């Protein structure tokens, strides 16, 4: 854009000379120190100079009017792009190199039809929505370094592992920041059942800005605030065989005890303060038991244990 504007001014000058009318370059009337990128301290003078130039072109006659219109169009396009860039999270998107060529099939319809044979109230769309909400809640909890809000939907084994990781970051004085998270794709990919439990896995693809900050200094120690990372995940949920989706809990509300229905206030060991039930083992509803990125060694688990 900086190259186009001087060229346009030269063109305007040549046109005026060809028409027999030269600009009266008076430093008191015009300011040609343009700054179309918005930087510097010459914005006021630049704006005044542009206005005076346009008015002068218009007074030149038909040729000047055409040149003025072209100048106005270029200015509008320039500032429109500038405003668009300011209002959007512009940054390069970097896909994860891990598991890039691993195929995770979409079996949503197949799994839903299969599930409905023994759980008529099961809804694939509701479950995927539930998984997406769990994903967002966990990312938020990780950044806050507080897992209490997601404790009801995490299996005790996963919770204990994640809690140790969170404590490690607290000890190191490292704060994670996940921003502008956008879930692009989510679907059911695998199902398995044994004598005690059934397992349902959701594939999820998301983009986010990911950086880490030193708690004491506030300085970024890893990542940046513009790069968006494209990540792929597998989220495996578990519940006891025989547990069915209830009509009123089809949305998998993790804020109420799945056993007694009381507002969820549970200890780190997963015990409901109201009824004393351990609600994070999958005995009453789905809980997240595995949460991993898709890696090179990730395998498609498919459908298992179904007659």
Written description of the protein model:
Strands 1, 2, 3, 4, 5 and 6 form a six-stranded mixed beta sheet that branches. Helix 2 packs antiparallel against helix 3 (62-87). Helices cover 34% and strands 23% of the residues. The protein has two domains: 4-87; 93-299, Nuclear Transport Factor 2, Chain: A, CATH 3.10.450. It has helices at residues 4-18, 43-59, 62-87, 108-115, 124-144, 156-172; strands at residues 93-95, 174-193, 197-214, 220-240, 287-293, 303-304. The N and C termini lie far apart (66 Å). The chain has 307 residues and is an alpha/beta fold. Residues 1-5, 12-44 and 248-253 have low confidence and may be disordered.
CATH architecture of the largest domain: Roll
Shape: elongated
Topology pattern, helix = H, strand = E: HHHEHHHEEEEE
**Helical residue percent band:** 25-40%
What is the residue-averaged pLDDT? 79
The name of the CATH topology of the largest domain is Nuclear Transport Factor 2, Chain: A
Sheet with the most strands? Answer: 6 strands, mixed
Class per helix and strand makeup: alpha/beta
């Amino acid at each position: 854009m900086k190259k186009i504007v001087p060229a346009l001014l030269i063109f305007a000058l040549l046109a005026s000379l060809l028409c027999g009318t030269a600009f009266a370059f008076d430093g008191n009337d015009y300011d040609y120190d343009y700054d179309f990128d918005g930087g510097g301290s010459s914005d006021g003078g630049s704006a005044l100079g542009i206005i005076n130039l346009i008015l002068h072109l218009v007074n030149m006659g038909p040729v000047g009017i055409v040149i003025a219109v072209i100048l106005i169009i270029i200015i509008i396009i320039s500032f429109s792009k500038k405003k668009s860039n300011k209002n959007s999270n512009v940054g390069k998107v970097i896909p994860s190199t891990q598991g890039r060529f691993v195929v995770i099939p979409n079996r949503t319809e197949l799994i839903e039809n299969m599930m409905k044979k023994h759980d008529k109230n099961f809804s694939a769309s509701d479950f995927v929505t539930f998984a997406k909400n769990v994903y967002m809640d966990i990312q938020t909890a990780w950044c806050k370094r507080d897992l209490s809000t997601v404790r009801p939907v995490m299996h005790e084994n996963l919770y204990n592992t994640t809690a140790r990781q969170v404590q490690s970051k607290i000890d190191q004085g490292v704060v994670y920041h996940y921003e502008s998270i956008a879930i692009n794709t989510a679907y059911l990919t695998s199902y398995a059942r044994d004598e005690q439990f059934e397992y349902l896995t959701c594939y999820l693809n998301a983009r986010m800005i990911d950086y880490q900050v030193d708690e004491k200094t506030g300085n970024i120690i890893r990542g940046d605030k513009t790069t968006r990372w494209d990540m792929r995940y597998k989220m495996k949920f578990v519940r006891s065989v025989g547990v069915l989706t209830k009509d009123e809990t089809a949305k998998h509300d993790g804020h109420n005890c799945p056993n007694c229905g009381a507002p969820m206030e549970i200890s780190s060991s997963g015990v409901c303060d109201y009824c004393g039930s351990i609600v994070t083992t999958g005995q009453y509803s789905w809980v997240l038991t595995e949460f991993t990125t898709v890696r090179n060694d990730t395998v498609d688990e498919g459908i298992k244990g179904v007659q």
